Amino acid sequence: MAVGDKPAPPAERLNGQAYARPSRLRAILIGNRFHTGFVRLSVIYILLIVLAFLFLLPFYWMVNTALKPANQVFTLPPTWIPQPAMWSNFYTALTTTTYESAPPVYHYAINTIIITVNGVAATLFSSSLVAYAFARLEFPGKDVIFLGILSTLMIPFAVVMVPQFIIWRHLNWLDTLWPLMIPHWFGSAWNIFLLRQFFMTIPREYDEAAFLDGASRWHIFIRIVLPLSKPALAAVAVFAFVFFWNDFLGPLIILSTPENFTLTIFLANFSVAYRGTPWNLYMAAALIIILPCLILFFFSQNAFLKGITVTDIKG
Amino acid sequence: MTHREKMTRRTFLRLGGTVAGAAALAACAPVASPQDDSSTAGASAAEPITIRYGRHDPGGGVNITLDAFREEYPDIDVKIEQIGEFHAKIPALAAAGTLPDVVRSWEAMALDLGRNNQFIDTQPYVDGEMNFNPEDFYENWWNYPVEEGKRFGIPDAAAPHVTFYNADLFDAAGVEYPDKDSFTWTDFEEKARAISDPDNQIWGSETIPVGWHMFSVKQVWQNDGRFYSPDYRECWLDKPETIQAIQFWADMLLDGNVMPSPSQIVGIGGAGAAAELLAAGKIGMQRMGSWITGSLVEAGFRFNVVAEPSQARRDTITHGAFNAIAATSDNKDAAWTWLNYNTSTQGIYNYASEANFPGTRRSSNAIEPFPWVADVDFEVDWDVIPEALDYGHILPGPANEGESLKLIGDALEKVYSGVAKAAEIFPDVASHVTDVIADI
Amino acid sequence: MNTTGFTVHNTIWRSRRLRDALVAYAFILPWIIGFVLFVGGPIVASFGLSFFRWKMIAPPRFYGLTHYINMFTSDELFRISIWVTFKFVLISVPIGQILALGLALLLNQRVVMLGFWRSVFYLPAVVSGVAGSIIWVWMYHNELGIVNNGLQLIGLEGRNWLFDRPMVLGALVVKSLWNIGIPMVIYLAALQGLPQQLYEAADIDGAGEGAKFFAITLPMLSPAIFFNVVMGIITSVQTFAEPYVMTGGGPDNATLFLGLHLYQSAFHFLKMGYASAMAWIMFLIIFGLTAFQFRLASRWVYYEGDAR
């Protein structure tokens, strides 16, 4: 980008003629701070292309298989482009029920959507509430509590899994969606941290002015801080979406009857349900299930990137 | 280093799709038509009671029974639920308190969960049925799920393991058929060796499904050994008969000239391909539950049946399940109504005949065509199959069976893959398993 | 609140502070409740449970230290699972970080279509663990998978990766490398935030590429590296979906991760107390590793002078 419009590099000016020629050749091949040399450029792009190829290979293999007619799945060597492309595989994967009273796949999708929507709303609301207090309010024990919140990041789910299971059992809530919805209304450490970092970048004058005008903290939070934090909230929302959509261990432990299953549980059970594995349908189902997250990613890349990088990790 | 495919229990579960599962459930039409739900949508006053019925195989003959049941009891709505990874999931459902009202449970699981009060005692219900004739059931099946006078389930089918052999392949190799009256392990090995031609992917015997403990249990029994002491308080994996039996078959498996060895299985394209060899006419003998009849008929070669080969004594596995009522069920009476209907003479017959194995009721097995008989145009000694119910046994049912099977299964996997000798590792494993099963 | 006419400034000030604090506590109340109910409480309960034998379907029984003793004396599977997890973390975290950093460095070379490349490498991070695992099972399929067929195209012989005892953990590591999108983006952001003056100064001193990388880039990135390594270890110690879906812990327990062993103990074998004991060990491992890194951090993590 920043090629010609800069003054000559100080190094060359200082070293004068003596080094000019080798350094010019060097600049063409390897490059310097301002030019990317040809050799260097080639190496970079070759590496990028090879790595991108490897990273995309699983997607290609999934799509390729998902579109194959059943008989082509087992041909050797594999068909690299399915002929003809069986778009109906997606329909089949979604609608086939393996036995009479098995719920159709959209049923699992509904459960997943309920859990995800609730999860996103709950995370946004509760985490921003808590984050606001840490960003703006003064109270005894603030630092200790904040450290406490951060240190819960270290606690593996396994430690709380069994006791939580026992709690839900006593409430008779196992095999319902409640245990997968309610706990998320109490803030999550990572998002609290993320939002607090963002809130702190909002100039204090905005809310102090409102405070002096007699607005309540709640009012300031809802009317001033939240509207100013849309990018951060979007970041939290997309990450929460991906997390809840893909959650596996939680539903695996909580849900028992097929009617309550989520898409990930369905996918993990797929081979069992179909006895033997029609890989084309399996891949079609997998593709459908990851599609919402892929679409979300393509439409909100900035939110994703911000979500990762808004936090001042040096803090 | 090694380049082989080992069968874990999980692989076997998957593979089970092609072997056991496909055959046991072959007949089930997998896709149900949606129309039959609305049949009860009349002007019935009371809300129908919903009964959840959990089984590993949701299709097949049980749907015939279910349709008849709906006609007769429109106020009870039975919903079949498939429980994948049965062995693992049922205990989890029990712990969660969310077991289906009626559970079709494996042998040991019925006992274990019954002991822990997860299944109710169904004896009072049995006593309350006027025309119930317990003597109709095979005794060992009827008496199996009973402890301290409590009955934790009613059996339905009982598939015995027998030896199927490909008569065409025997003829081609010029090997005499197995003798009905005297068929020993030695005979088995000799014949299998004579038939085997690994270069052409032909073997005298099907491979051993390593992850499937039934195979090892029956081999141990045939050598007069046991996995556990009769009271299930001790693991007898370290007894000489047990060690000898497992090592004998492991050696045969690793030999490569009797049955496909683990490394040969990789060579022929993995476990899935190996499982298809029998139907492809490339396997001389297979010791397996009688549910494979269906796939043999489709395979198109001439086959026959003989009892399992024996060593010290004649024995085999008869594998089936018990229908139990969960203690957490809100509608135990309705659950019993369905359970009793499903395990009636006709109910058992419906399921057994679709899957080609005998029922546990003698009266079901008296209905023609006999459930284990398939329609073929050559002579088959079909009687061998029900006869096995008289001498065969049911899988042992110690406490904490799942965990003990994990330990035993890991050890078996090592022996069958040649990593270790049975004599080296079984004593240690036995003492661990004893700790596990004694921990009631 | 004191509203009488004799109120002194001091009390007004103090009551306002009190009121502010109360408001603040009201704001963080959700977290406090959630912590007590779903984290703190369960952690304590989990510790207590670890001294009991509780199958859930039978009443609990006091077991003392038996679980902890068994874990280190008789449960071979526990030893295996610790070792498997340890090996996985030790291999996958460093390789993953090097790959993520390498990609970030590549992307930081003023490449055209930065957004495109970044998306490509980030994409797998939004794919669920279950779906990703299933895709990789299919990739690794012995005959039909693209891995073996691809190797064949370039004249190499494949393996039955997921059933090959010595290879299977490596196969899972490779799968984990597919998911390095998040650390990569963090590195990239950190790289883009590096002050250019430092490099200019180095150029004046005639420093070479390598010297600049080790003298400037790496130290300046050290906070990001530290963060990524800590998070990488915390998540990879808890690996669950991959072995659950891809291998079931096999072959011959070669992928019996601690998380899987724990899950099976709790929900297949109903050893809730024992699982709790193992969970505590897992917690201690994570805590220990994290604390250790914070210790080490003072030696190699470079914070700019203005760090608080």
Determine the oligomeric state from the structure: heterotrimer
- Main pleated sheet of chain A: none
CATH superfamily of the largest domain in chain A: MetI-like
Overall 3D shape of chain B: globular
CATH topology of the largest domain in chain B: D-Maltodextrin-Binding Protein, domain 2
- Percent strand of chain B: 5-15%
Report the total helices of chain B. Answer: 19
Uncertain segments of chain B of ≥5 residues (pLDDT<50)? 1-44
The span between the termini of chain A is 31 Å
* Total beta strands of chain A: 0
Counting helices, strands and paired strands, the structural category of chain B is alpha/beta
Number of strands of chain B: 10
Which chains make the largest contact? A-C, 94 and 97 residues
CATH class of the largest domain in chain A: Mainly Alpha
Q: Which range does the strand content of chain A fall in?
A: under 5%
CATH architecture of the largest domain in chain B: 3-Layer(aba) Sandwich
Q: Low-confidence runs of chain A (pLDDT<50, min 5 residues)?
A: 1-20
Q: Name the CATH architecture of the largest domain in chain A.
A: Orthogonal Bundle
Number of domains of chain A: 2
Termini separation of chain B: 42 Å
Question: Could you please describe the fold and organization of this structure?
Answer:
The complex is a heterotrimer of chains A (315), B (440) and C (308). Chain A is mostly helical and 315 residues long. In chain A, 67% of the residues lie in helices and 0% in strands. In chain A, helix 3 packs across helix 15, helix 10 runs antiparallel to helix 11 and helix 14 packs antiparallel against helix 15. Chain A is flat and about 75 Å long. In chain B, the strands form two sheets. In chain B, strands 1, 2, 3, 6, 7, 8, 9 and 10 form an eight-stranded mixed β-sheet that branches. The N terminus of chain B is likely disordered. With 308 residues, chain C is mostly helical. Chain C folds into two domains: 41 residues; 235 residues, MetI-like fold. Chain C is built from 13 helices and two strands; from the N terminus they run αββαααααααααααα. In chain C, helix 3 packs across helix 12 and helix 12 packs antiparallel against helix 13. Chain C is flat, with a radius of gyration of 26 Å. Chain C starts with 8 loop residues before the first helix and ends in an 8-residue tail after the last helix. The N terminus of chain C is likely disordered. Chains in contact: A-B, A-C, B-C.
